[in-house]
DNA sequence: TCCTGATCTCAACGTCTGTTGAATCCGAGT
DNA sequence: ACTCGGATTCAACAGACGTTGAGATCAGGA
């Protein structure tokens, strides 16, 4: 009721607005929970309490909004050394613990989920996800260890990490979603550790 | 040029038609490569060389077409005993070898890919995938082994299996897509085997 | 031979989509 | 005080979507 002049008004609102950030937040939420195709500009604008054309005014295109919204909230270059630093021992566990913590912390508006949900049937998003996983994280990890075929090892890790996201957050497999985090850290940590270090030859 | 009377004609075509199967094939292809939302009835009808309303005539609804098209081409009850039968030794490898063989064999029109691609942002498809993976396959495997927390073990296996599909077929991680199949059977087989048999307690 | 019912197309509907253009409003710099 | 330009909304477009209803055509049984 602080709005003195009826319902919707045109033109600029008083104050600093912060509307652009509100749109980005709404976009993160929608893209993360519905993927690129199903998330609509109108719904995002609605969540942000704003007209759809304002979204276009700021970002020009739904695609550009997606790229802006899926920017990762933390810089892998900052955090990966912190994980790799202590050495090979327990590296798998540290990676998994970091991932699960990040997922719980980010909740609904998780760019990783948005990328996974959009990669499906949207090659551009698949490329974004591939590049993020590969160049930003796994290549750094693979470079830190000393083993043969580092890129295949990175892909193996990626396949289990993406599988964790799919199974826990998207398919919501019940026992997996309910499992104690440290149990998962132990089990998946050993898997990642093996992918990084064990011999890869068949038999 | 066997069509003697001009271009498009109404009414029933001569012969046994087999059109229903053609529509199902086209639907499998589209749903598998684009997911439920992005695949359109019009495109499916176009692939089958048919009018969109004929699709509705046969299946009533896009949703019903999806369910019909994603029916699994093999019966898990037939094949799972064949995989589990030889015993615990090498069970993980046999499962992975079967999965990878199936993926290569089915190619483009793979219901598993369709379900994965649709599960994302489409809770009904997620439930279908969950039920298929769980009840049709993993519960049978989990029941065959003797270990604690069989359902959690089944979910762990599912997370790696879904991750393989995502990483190889959808994200198309290059080294993973190019890797020798028996190498993957060895590496992933050990993972599945561990998920089925190793102790799960943290630490 | 005629009738019935399944197969098939055409045209259209209402809705939702991303995007555009013009019009308004207002804070800030001069 | 006066402009300038960014912020914001409204109204509308053109295209795609799933779905519908009516009609045409033909195969097969009576």
From TrEMBL, chains A, B:
Pfam families: TetR_C_16, TetR_N
Record keywords, A-Z: DNA-binding
Matching PROSITE patterns: HTH_TETR_2
Record feature DNA-binding region, as residue ranges: 40-59
Keyword Transferase: no
InterPro entries: Homeodomain-like_sf, HTH-type_TetR-like_transc_reg, HTH_TetR, Tet_transcr_reg_TetR-rel_C_sf, TetR_C_16
Segments forming domain HTH tetR-type: 17-77
Name of the protein: TetR family transcriptional regulator
Organism annotation: Actinomycetospora chibensis
């Amino acid at each position: 009721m602080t709005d003195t002049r009826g319902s919707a008004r045109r033109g600029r609102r008083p104050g600093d607005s912060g509307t652009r950030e509100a749109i980005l937040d709404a976009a993160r939420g929608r893209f993360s929970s519905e993927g690129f195709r199903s998330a609509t500009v109108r719904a995002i604008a609605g969540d942000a309490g704003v007209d759809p054309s304002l979204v276009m005014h700021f970002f020009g295109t739904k695609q550009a909004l997606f790229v802006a919204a899926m920017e990762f909230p933390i810089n892998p270059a900052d955090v990966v050394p912190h994980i790799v630093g202590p050495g090979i021992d327990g590296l798998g566990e540290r990676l998994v613990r970091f991932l699960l913590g990040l997922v719980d912390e980010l909740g609904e508006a998780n760019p990783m989920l948005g990328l996974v949900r959009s990669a499906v049937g949207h090659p551009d998003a698949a490329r974004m996800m591939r590049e993020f996983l590969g160049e930003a994280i796994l290549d750094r990890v693979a470079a830190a260890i000393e083993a043969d075929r580092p890129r295949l090892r990175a892909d193996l890790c990626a396949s289990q990490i993406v599988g964790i996201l799919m199974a826990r957050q998207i398919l919501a497999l019940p026992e997996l979603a309910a499992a104690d985090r440290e149990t998962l850290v132990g089990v998946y940590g050993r898997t990642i550790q093996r992918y990084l270090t064990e011999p890869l030859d068949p038999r």
